[in-house]
């Protein structure tokens, strides 16, 4: 029982992070109907920017942790958002109206470029970071096993919930969100109502990248290590989460993220840690076979 | 002949709201619109009629920025400024020049509610009020006020089009006739100076099309805007138009009041054809006889 609860906590933390990345996939898919394959690497960029920021702040002597966290959060979100904007500008916008496969390929190219760029600029070795938020508490004890809940896990889950709530508000309540949903359904008609479609798409990429940056920061804090390749695995898992929840659906991405996190945590706890990635991939395959529209997705209706 | 029409006298004084001059649209070898000139004035309903394929919708597509005309000038002179539509980027035409349009095949946002369809049409106003969403997110009062005004305007048009009861239903779930009215309401929420309607009566029954006439006349009377109408239903066209432009194969063949159009031999010829039977190849005529 205690072991189970511990895995539940770990899984939820992991799932929160996957959920944040998955939102970026699902929003971009919603608006342009394509997977942004560079999104995982945007997240990796976010993680690197966080670690660089932390090191710089440490060097100049900003040691008050909440302040340091705020500064890192803002800088890494802004810079990563700029990367997201650039990816759309370079890899997607020039190819809009081209055949469907073209932007997909250019996005994969962008992903390879970003990986190699970081590898060249930062080196291929793992970059460690000392734990910044340490400590925690024992929530229950029994059978010789203590369930430990770290403060960091609490912070991660709270930030995720706040961001997701904020995002849901953004999509459902604000004029930007409305424009986004209008573009999802009919871009030409949205333009005819005076919606700047290009800008709306750009802002979607920017918003997705900003969330990925937060996820990157949290992973840096959680695992204390990053390398140039983390975007690939996390990207595929978040993509799986988005597909599992129903791609194009915002609550679906959150639900999918949490489920993938839980599956991975329980799989590594009860079966084998070595094959934990296999669990996520197996879920992707099963979902694609049995329920391609995902848990909360609407089946795609062909327009006639 | 086309020269004579192109230089036809324009009402003197201030330029009319919309002046289309020498509009030509060529798709490869196909000349869809050929040297078309006409104007549309405030508080008037101008109809564009003509047989299928005459280029009517192409004219609309040029006006709303879907196509860049091969040649021609589309000048819109409104109280808020003068615009050359052929030089404007697509989404700026509704935003800055305030031209709104509806489609032959309805293009609502089916998954959004009826009310939201009308709010999207006021996107730019709300974006400005919300300082590009930031203020909206933190809930500044200025945005709240702008949003209330937007809802107010939407409600006015919901009442006008008798859709208030369905305000929260998804737009895609409405019956056909209501969707047509919603499209007009949405276009009006854009607060246009020129409203382009592409076959708004298509698929409506006699009662619905009479209601449409009344709606269009009241828009004209109350909003004092120019309405440009493409329509096949001659009951609608003859009943409410102030001015009719007739196209055939992309050229203007007639331009005038409904009475003038009705008696114009060129129009009758375009619609009914001349000695059509004699042009039938013999084998087709034979085939027809066998079948009947």
Please explain how this structure is put together.
Chain A is mainly α. Chain A has one domain: ABC transporter involved in vitamin B12 uptake, BtuC (Orthogonal Bundle). Chain A contains eleven helices and four strands. Chain A has helices at 2-32, 39-60, 65-92, 101-122, 151-173, 175-185, 187-192, 197-223, 230-245, 250-270, 276-290, and strands spanning 127-128, 136-142, 145-150, 225-226. Chain A has a two-stranded antiparallel sheet. In chain A, strands 2-3 form a two-stranded antiparallel sheet. In chain A, a hairpin with a 2-residue loop joins strand 2 and strand 3 (145-150). The termini of chain A are far apart. Chain B has 292 residues and is α/β, with parallel strands linked by helices. The longest helix of chain B is centred in the middle third of the chain and has 20 residues, at 141-160. The radius of gyration of chain B is 21 Å and the shape is globular.
